[in-house]
Amino acid sequence: MAEAGWYEDPAGPTLVRYWDGHAWTERLCARPTSPAASGVIAPVVPIRPPTPAVVAPGLESESGSPDVPAWFVASVVIGIMAVIGMMVFAAVG
Question: Which of 16, 20, 38, 44 is the most exposed place for a label (fewest CB within 10 A)?
Answer without folding.
Answer: 38
